[in-house]
Every structure is written in C-alpha cells, then in structure tokens.
Write a structure and sequence with these properties.
- The structure holds 2 protein chains of 2 kinds.
- Chain A has helices at about 1-15, 20-30, 40-50, 60-65, 75-90, 95-100, 105-115, 120-130, 135-145, 155-160, 165-180, 180-195, 195-215, 215-230, 235-245, 255-260, 270-275, 285-290, 300-310, 315-320, 330-340, 350-355, 360-375, 375-390, 395-405, 410-420, 425-435, 445-450, 455-470, 475-490, 495-505, 510-520, 525-535, 545-550, 555-570, 580-590, 595-605, 610-615, 625-640, 645-660.
- By secondary structure, chain A is mainly α.
- Among the domains of chain A are: about 345-475, Leucine-rich Repeat Variant; about 500-570, Alpha Horseshoe (Leucine-rich Repeat Variant), CATH 1.25.10; about 575-663.
- In chain A, α2 (about 20-30) packs parallel to α4 (about 60-65), α16 (about 255-260) crosses α17 and α30 packs antiparallel against α31 (about 495-505).
- The longest helix of chain A has 17 residues, at about 195-215.
- Chain A is flat and about 110 Å long.
- Chain B has 2 domains: about 10-170, 3-Layer(aba) Sandwich (Rossmann fold), CATH 3.40.50.720; about 175-355 and about 380-420, Dihydrodipicolinate Reductase, domain 2, CATH 3.30.360.
- The model of chain B is unreliable at about 1-25 (pLDDT under 50).
- Chain B has a 9-stranded mixed beta sheet with strand order 13-12-11-7-10-9-8-14-15.
- The chains are: A mainly alpha, B alpha/beta.
- Chains A and B meet through α3, α5, α7, α9 and α11 of A and α5 of B.
C-alpha cells in the first residue's frame, strides 16, 4: 500500500513536470515479485508507449530498463525489463544484456530482449556468447541466431551441429536451415550424408527450410530433388515434392502428368500431385487432366474431380460431367457433388437423366443434393420445372420436391399445373411443394382445387397447402373473405368442414362469426368441425364461443377440444396475471373432470405469477396421478409469487415439500 | 456419444447464385462409403496434445468417425490424462489408449497420422510446428498463434512439410453461419459495409504470490515457449488474462468472428489496412495482476472501405456477429445459433436443420477428407493466420493506444514500435 501511494505520488510529480520519472519507476519496479505491486510496471509500460511520440525520452526510458537488469533486481523485474527492451531497446542496452547471456538463469531473458534488437551489435553479442555458453543457455543463443538468420554465425553453427550435446546439435541444424547461406547449405549437405540417423533427418528438414530461402533457385530445386529421392520420412518427401511443383516453370504440370502415368504409382505423392492441379495457371490444365480421369484409380478420380471443381472452367466442368455416369460409385457420387457445387441450369438435363437412372438410394440422394445446390437462381428453377414435364414416376415426384427445396416461388404456376395430375403421387408432391411456396395469389386457385379434391389423402394435402398460402396473405381480411366466399357457395359437408378449418388461419372477426354460425347449424359433423376450428383460434377472441361449447358440449370430443383450446388461449395471457386471467383459470378448474384436464391446467399454471395460482395448484398435490405435475407447476409459480406474497408462498412450499416425500 | 450430423444432405436453405468458388469441396463421408465399417488399415490414427476442457468437449466429435482411430493422449498435467484415456477407452471398449507426459513421445509414434492440439493458446503454434516437423497432420484449436510472426512461421512450416492443417474455427462448417454468409453474398442485405461482432467482457485476476509447483505438473512444459517465471496458480488457471499466455477474449473469441468476416468478404489471402481501438478498460493494477482488456471497441478497415468492429462488452451469452448492408442486416446469435435479419423475409430461405457450432463434425470431416486428398482444408494455415492476425493487430493497436496502418502484403505496420510487437523470442527447448 505504501509502495502504491509512493508510486502514485511519483507519477503526480512526473505528470507535473511533463515526463515520466523513469528512474524512480524503475527503482520501484526492480523489486517486483508475483503478488507484489504491479503499478510501477504498468506505469512504466504507459510511459514507454508515450516515448513513441516523444523519442527524446526514449534514452531515459531505456536506461531505466537497463537499471532493472542489475544483479540485485528481482528475477521477475529483469524478465519484465527484457520484455520491454525487446520492444524498445537499442544498442545502448546490448552490453548489459550481453552480461546476462553468461548466466544460466538469465540467458533466456537476455535472448528475449536481443531478439527484438535487430542490430549488428546485438548479433555480435549473441555470437560471442555462442562460444562461451553451455547447455540450455547455448541452445537458446543458437535459436536466437537462427531466428535472426545470422549468416556470420553459420561456420560456428556448422561445428556445433556435430556437438556431443544432442540438444545443441539439433538446435544448430535448425538454425542452419533458417540461415540458408551457402555455407549453411553446405554444412547441411554434409550432415545429410554422414550424421547419425536422427540428426540426418533433422538436416533434411532443415534443408527443406533452406531451399525456400536460397537465392540460387536452381540449386534449391536440386536440393529438393535430392531430399525427394533420399529422405525416408514421408512428410519430407511430400514437402520436397510440393516444393518442386511450386518451383517448376510450368507450375508442376509435366511433373504431375508423369506422376499419374508412372507405373507403379507413388501412392505418397499422387495425392499431392493431384491437389496441385487446382492451382495450375496453364489454361489447358483442365483439359489435360480431365482427359486422364478415366485412367485413374477410383480414389484418384475423386481427388481429381475435387481439383477440377476448384478450377471450374469449361473443360473442368465437361470432364466432371463425364464422370456422372461412372461405373465407380465413389467417382460417380463425387462427380455429382461437384456438379451441384459449380454448375447451373445447364447441368439440369444431365442430372435429371441421372435421377431417372439412379438405382441406389445413395445415388438418388447424391443427384438430389446436386440439383438442390445448383447455382443459377430462377433460371435453374425454370430448367428443373421443364425437366419435371419430361420426367416420369418417382423422378418426376423428386424433381417437384426439389423445386420446394430450392424455394422456387417463380415456379408456382407450373406446380399448380402438376397438382392437377391424374397421377396421385405427382399431385400430392405438387401440393406439398405448394405448401412451402404458394402465397396470397394462389389462394383462389387452391380453394377451387379444394372444392374439387375427391381423394381423402389428396384433399388433406390441398387443405394444408391452402392453409399455408393463407398464412402468407398480408391481408387477413382478404383471406377470410375468400374462404367465406367458398362457404357461401353452399358446399357439401366434407368441403364445408375443410373450409371451417381454414378460418382460424385468417383469424379475423368475420371468420370468427362464420364459425359461430356454423356452431348453430343443422349438420353435426360441421358443428364438430367448427368446434375444432374454434379450439385452434389464434387468440382469446374465440374464448366466449368456446367457453359456451365447453359448458354445454354435444359430445366428449367437443368438450375435450374446447377444454384444450381454452387452456391454450388462457396460457397466452399468462404474462398479465390479473383478475381476468384468474377468472378464466377458475372456470377451467371448476370444469375439471379428468386427470388429463388437471395436467393441462397445471402445465399452463406454471407460468402464472399470482397467488391464486397457488390456490388452484396446491389441492392437486393430493391427487396421486398428477402430483408430479403439481410439484412442477408449483416450482414455476413459487419464485414468481414469493416476493409479493411470501406467506402464501411459504405455506404452499411446505405442502409441496411434504408431497415430494410421498410415493 | 455425440453424433455429428452432417449438414451436407440438408441444405434446403440454399437458393440462388451460391458463390462457393474458391472453397474446398466437401465430399460427405457417406459418399466415400465411410458410414459403414472401415478397415483398421484405412483409418486415420489420431493423438491428442493438451487434453483439458476444450479437448474433452470436442473429443466425442472425433470419436464418432468410423474412419478415425484415437490412439493416444498427452498433457503436461497428469491429473488430466486419466480421464481423457478413460473417455477413449470407453468408446472403443478397450484399454489401448496410450498416455504420454511429453507430447514429443506421442509425435514420435510412427502409427499416429494426425493430432488434435487443444493446449493453452501459448502452445498452439509451437505444438503445431512440432507436429508438422514430425510429419503429422493437424487439427488445432484457435487462436492459432499468439503473435503475427508466429502465425506466419506456422504457415511456412506447414507448407514446407506438406502438412494438412485445420484451424478450429469451426463456424465455417456450421449451418447458421453458412446461411448468413450466403445471404450476404446473394446481396439480400444490399451492399455490405460493416461487420459487427461482440465478445464478452474480460475477467480480472487479483494479485497472487508464487507457490510450489503442484505434484504432477510439468510446469516447464506447461509454460512451453513462454519465458520462464515462478509458478503462480492464478496465472495458470486464468492464462487468458496475461499477454504472454493469452491475449484476452477479443482475440480468443474474436478470431472466430474475424475468420467469418474474412470468409464472407473473400479476403482470406489478405487483411484490413487499418486498426484502431477506443474505450478500452484495463484492469486496475492496484487490485489486479491481470493484463488483458476488460472491455473495449476494436476496429479495422479494409482497403475497399468495409469496416469491422469487435465490441468487448456484455455477458458470455450475448455474443453475436452481424453483417450490416445498405438494405438490411443479418445476425447470428452465437449462444442460441438463431439467425435474425432485416428484412425478416430473408429468413424464409433458411432450412430447419443443420449442425450448430458446438458440433464440429463437419469441420472434422473436412480435415479427414483433406488428409486423404492432400487438398487444403476450409481453415488452412493461411486462412487461420490472416484471421488471427487481425485480432492481434487490434491488440497491438490497443496496447500502443494508437491507430495503425497495416500492409497486408509485407505484413508490417507503419509504426516501428508496433512492428517490434509482431514477434516474441521463444524459450528453448520449446522452439522448432
């Protein structure tokens, strides 16, 4: 605390004088250990940042950091200072850092700082330390020289690459790879020949590193070729091969062709070769390698299709299309996936043919996936719709489904035509698609078709499509009017019931009135349909009509429907737990007949933040069949009620806990 | 067992003009006949490096695949190895999962083809480079590096060794994010001008003294390339909050969003040209030893004028990414995976199924396919590095409290002090 106050005072004085008192901050920071005062460290950091715009202060700042390297400074203070010197240090700090290189404990810290000071003086300090250091310190210094690609140290590192200390030797090999000077490359070449196995492999890896940086590109290629021929490690051969491909004047084209024609194939390199096809700049590459497709092994064909798909030019697309009918399943399906990814409407006839001929489920799925993914927007949708007209049977049904999957709202007129098909499967598929795509404009046409639909299953599909289209009408009154207009044409019972079921979708007052009238009609099935429709009404406007049914149902089905609908409507009002809501719940509770009724009410009561909800739920704890639901409901009600009615809540809680212990 | 459901067969939301030009093709595993039994000789053998909370959360996604065999786990903390081994052994009904205290011994196993790296952030790039040099392919959790230089070295190392690498920014393989991207590319929000995202507020860590290293911790290995410092349990448990082991949530989570931004903008091979931060709230050094930001606004600007902004504020559950155009916007809520949009009619194109971000199945499938084909993954090293370099540049801008210009080709700032923060000297022997 005292140190903190002192630091604050120091800063106040410094602020007054316009510059940080680096010396004072450094003195405080020099004692830092974990758990201690970090304020001086943070202030030093801020002051250092300020020197970016005030370079005149930089020397002072650096001097302060150097003072933190003194022998009596804490280790953590030195660490902090070295981190900051890596960001702000100059040659002025090098002598103090050089001194730290000599000690095991601080060599690493010094390398952190020197790593950021990219000057010859810093490099020279590291070179000097190279000879004097040992063990882990030496490894750190070697790493530092390698990371700064210090050419003058190559000769020394070449010697250390044969050091008895394995860690030193490995570090030196890695550093030589980074340096990549002619001397370094020569040293690595020698090591590849005569070093022990492990180190020879390291030398090969380092040589790959060097090859990327060598100024002599011809020599670099020769080096990669040597590694390719001699290295045992698969990844080194792959790496060397990939480097040669990149280095080739033709981008690797000839080398790839050779690899694919070789007998036997080099299984390690072929995938690398094929992967490179995607990146070739040669305009004829797609044609060249597309032509090779049939002669490749199945796995290779899949990879080549992937590479050609990336190229995506006309020759690539043609080659991929040619594989859509491949006798090899994997090739065929890979080609289909690629077509779906890169092609557009032009590929529809090909895919439609493939769909018609697809024998295996996996092929059918692959074709459909491809069709679903084709580019080209509405033009592709139209091409698919045209393909529908030419297709038969299962294929026709699938293509219709694809229009829905693609969201092809522009093809709704075509789907309406398909919905008139005498083939039941086609008609049903069309209606299922219309269910997803049809909108307000299609409602009259769908209502007409609903009137004509004879088959029960088909009528259900038409009704579903009509309902969905109705739901998309922005003007609910217009939808209601259309449905009521159809009702006014005095249709038969089945159609009348279907139309009544559509009225809740429109959901306006006129539709509700039509349902009320239907309740009073002569036809029992129509009255049942009206009750069902009222039970699904979207808001509480239907409450009175439905409550009347609930209180005087014609049959058990009507009662159950009304009860369920009333519970659902009441639940939608839970957010406003007023007396009106409670009155509705009491009506329902008073009408309970079965345990299922109790469960429905308890499910709805769970969200009610009103003490009356407790009064209604607690007695149901005494009904074994619904005790679990009552407990669950109370767990939802109690937290909401407790703040305003703690006494009632506690009482209810006690009863709930007692009930929890019962079987 | 978590069964990753592939989204490939359920792209019912796809509609028009899908701009999928340069991305690698995902071939569903079932196309390759991989849903059924796969001969052991044809399975890709995996090991795990760093087997803490994240690794154990994602491990079931890996184990589900028939053409993958998990063989070993390694961790610097002995207390984590037993539970990870049990998870693997239970899955296979064997006791064969090997455990290693030193990941280098795991990498030395010739039968292991690939590794999952889910260590703390300080280790991600270094462990990946060790793995690449050992000839292993890699799935590495994000962030892929802690400095821009480290990220570039990772890219170079993977290229040099022909390594197949997938960064764990799995939202590219996630349905809701794919949908949002496609809607932007189809122009349904007009011309995109801003990508806005939010990550949660950072925590703080009170002062805590050094203490003995707990039994079973290999602290030297735990630290890895980070300069040595005395063991402080709170520093290890909250490593996100210190610059040398993590860089705070705007980088750790922000990289998911910069990756999405890069993907949508088609700028995977480049980066923004300007970075700026504001309103950054740092921990109070009187009370806390933690270093990374608590909150702030982190901005970038691309050469074409498009802006990115990451807000670090709010709670964990409030994170999102929103693409804003001149005719609307579309947002993915990361907590719920729910997509919202203006105009709302955009949402009619979205299907009802697909995988969420917590299921990395498709992302892993992409890696497995790339291991076989040797073609780049969706989140290959260059992609991962470019996304990560954005949040790291934001960090540098925040720490220096200045606007910075960035050259995406040279990968240099217009400020020498900033350039000196591009790299940190790694501690040996944890250097590659």
């Amino acid at each position: 605390m005292k140190n903190t106050l002192t630091s604050v005072l120091v800063l106040a004085v410094a602020a007054a004088s316009g510059a940080a008192d680096f010396a004072a901050l450094a003195e405080k920071a020099a004692n830092y250990v974990s758990g201690g005062d970090v304020v001086p460290l943070r202030e030093l950091e801020r002051a250092l940042v300020a020197t970016i715009d005030a370079p005149a202060d930089r020397a002072q700042a650096e001097a302060a950091l150097v003072r933190m390297l003194a022998a009596d400074a804490s280790f953590e203070a030195k660490r902090f200072a070295c981190e900051r010197l890596s960001e702000y240090g100059t040659d002025a700090a090098v002598p103090a850092l050089a001194a730290l290189l000599g000690a095991e404990e601080t060599a690493g810290l010094a390398c952190i700082a020197l790593g950021g000071i990219r000057t010859e003086k810093a490099a020279e300090a590291l070179r000097t330390a190279l000879a004097a250091s040992k063990g882990p310190s030496r490894v750190q210094v070697i790493s530092a020289l390698g990371l700064r690609r210090d050419e003058p140290s190559a000769a020394a590192l070449a010697g250390l690459a044969r050091d008895a200390d394995a860690a030193v030797a490995r570090a030196a090999v890695t550093a030589l790879g980074r340096i990549a000077s002619p001397a370094a490359v020569a040293a690595l070449a020698a090591l590849r020949k005569d070093a022990p196995t492990g180190l020879a492999a390291d030398a090969a890896a380092a040589s790959l590193d060097a090859a990327e940086r060598m100024a002599d590109r011809a020599a670099a290629a020769a080096l990669c070729d040597e590694i390719l021929q001699s290295a045992k490690a698969a990844h080194l051969r792959r790496g060397a091969y990939a480097a040669l491909l990149r280095a080739d004047a033709d981008g690797g084209l000839a080398r790839i062709r050779a690899a694919l024609k070789a007998k036997p194939r080099d299984a390690l390199l072929v995938p690398v070769a094929i992967a490179r096809v995607a990146e070739l700049q040669d305009a004829g590459a797609s044609k060249t390698f597309g032509a090779m497709l049939p002669g490749l092994l199945p796995d290779e064909q899949g990879w080549m299709i992937g590479a050609l798909a990336v190229r995506g030019d006309a020759d690539a697309r043609a080659a991929i299309r040619g594989q859509v009918a491949s006798t090899q399943a994997v090739t065929r399906r890979t080609a289909l996936a690629a077509v779906g990814r890169i092609e557009d409407a032009a590929a529809v006839p090909l895919l439609a043919t493939a769909l018609a001929g697809a024998a295996a489920e996996e092929d059918r799925v692959a074709v459909e996936q491809a069709l679903a993914g084709l580019r080209g927007g509405s033009a592709t949708d139209t091409a698919i719709a045209q393909a529908v007209q030419k297709a038969q049977g299962v294929a026709r049904v699938a293509l219709i489904g694809l229009l829905a999957r693609r969201g092809a709202t522009g093809e709704v007129p075509a789907l309406l035509i398909e919905s008139d098909s005498t083939n039941a499967a086609v008609a049903r598929a069309a209606y299922q698609a219309l269910s997803k795509l049809a909108g307000a404009a299609e409602v009259p046409a769908l209502l007409q078709r609903l009137a004509k639909a004879g088959d029960k299953a088909l009528r259900a599909d038409v009704e579903a499509a009509t309902a969905r289209a109705l739901s998309r009408m922005p003007d609910a009154a217009a939808g209601s009017k259309a449905v009521r207009g159809a009702l006014a044409a005095n249709p038969g019972t089945d159609l009348r019931c279907a139309l009544l079921r559509l009225l809740p979708v429109a959901g306006d007052a006129a539709a509700l009135e039509a349902l009320r009238k239907a309740l009073a009609g002569d036809d029992a099935p129509v009255r049942d349909a009206a009750v069902r429709a009222l039970a699904g009404w979207p808001d509480v406007a239907a409450w009175d009509a439905l409550a009347a049914v609930f209180q005087k149902p014609e049959n058990d089905a009507q009662r159950a429907l009304a009860f369920g609908g009333l519970v659902r409507m009441t639940r939608t009002l839970n957010a406003k737990p007023d007396d009106a809501l409670i009155a509705r719940y009491r009506l329902l509770v008073d009408g309970i007949r079965t345990d299922d009724d109790r469960r429905q009410i308890l499910g709805a009561l769970t969200g009610v933040a009103h003490p009356a909800a407790l009064e209604m739920a607690v007695p149901m704890l005494d009904v074994p069949a619904v005790r679990a639901e009552a407990i669950l409901a109370l767990k939802g009600i109690l937290p909401a009620v407790k703040p305003s009615h703690p006494k009632e809540a506690v009482e209810a809680w006690k009863k709930m806990r007692a009930a929890e212990g019962q079987p | 067992m978590t069964r990753p459901r592939s989204s490939i067969g359920r792209r019912s939301f796809l509609r028009r003009g899908l701009a999928l030009a340069a991305a690698p093709m995902i071939v569903p595993g079932r196309v390759l006949g991989l849903d059924g039994g796969v001969a052991p000789s044809n399975r890709i053998v995996f090991g795990g490096i760093g087997i803490g909370n994240r690794a154990r959360a994602i491990l079931p996604n890996f184990l589900w695949f028939q053409d993958l065999q998990w063989a070993a786990v390694s961790d610097a903390r002995a207390d984590r190895l037993a539970s990870a081994k049990e998870m693997v052994d239970t899955h296979y009904g064997t006791k064969d999962c090997a455990v290693f205290a030193d990941f280098r011994d795991l990498l030395a196993r010739p039968d292991i083809d690939a590794v999952l790296i889910a260590t703390g952030n300080r280790w991600h790039a270094t462990a990946s480079m060790f793995a690449a040099k050992a000839g292993k392919d890699i799935y590495c959790e994000k962030p892929i590096s802690l400095t821009i230089d480290e990220g570039r070295r990772l890219v170079d190392t993977c290229r040099r060794h022909g390594t197949i690498y997938q960064a764990g920014t799995q939202r590219r393989s996630t349905t809701s994010y794919q949908f949002a991207r496609e809607m932007v590319l189809q122009g349904r929000i007009g011309k995109l001008h801003t990508v806005e995202s939010q990550v949660w507020m950072g925590g703080t860590v009170p002062h805590s003294a050094a203490e003995p290293v707990p039994e079973g911790w290999n602290y030297d290995m735990w630290l890895g390339p980070v300069p040595w410092r005395p063991f402080v349990r709170a520093r290890c448990d909250h490593w996100h909050s210190f610059w040398d082991t993590g860089e705070g949530m705007h980088t750790d989570m922000g990289t998911h969003y910069t990756d999405q931004m890069q993907w949508v903008l088609g700028t995977d091979a480049t980066a923004p040209v300007e970075f700026e931060t504001s309103d950054v709230v740092w921990p109070d050094p009187v009370k806390c030893m933690s270093e990374t930001a608590i909150s702030g606004t982190f901005r970038c600007r691309y050469a074409n004028g498009i802006r990115g902004v990451i807000y670090q504020r709010g709670a964990f559950k409030d994170r999102y990414i929103r693409y804003i155009g001149d005719e609307g916007w579309i947002q993915v809520d990361d907590e719920t995976d729910v997509v919202t949009a203006e105009p709302a009619s955009i949402l009619q194109f979205k299907g009802s199924s697909g995988v969420g971000w917590s299921n990395a199945g498709d992302h892993i499938r992409n890696l497995l396919d790339s291991i076989r084909s040797r073609r780049p993954t969706l989140c290959n090293p260059e992609v991962g590095h470019r996304a990560q370099s954005i949040v790291e540049a934001m960090t540098i801008s925040a720490r220096l409290n200045r606007k910075l210009a960035w050259d995406p080709v040279k990968e240099l700032f217009d400020c020498d002090a900033a350039n000196r923060m591009l790299r940190r000297e790694p501690r040996t022997p944890w250097t590659v």
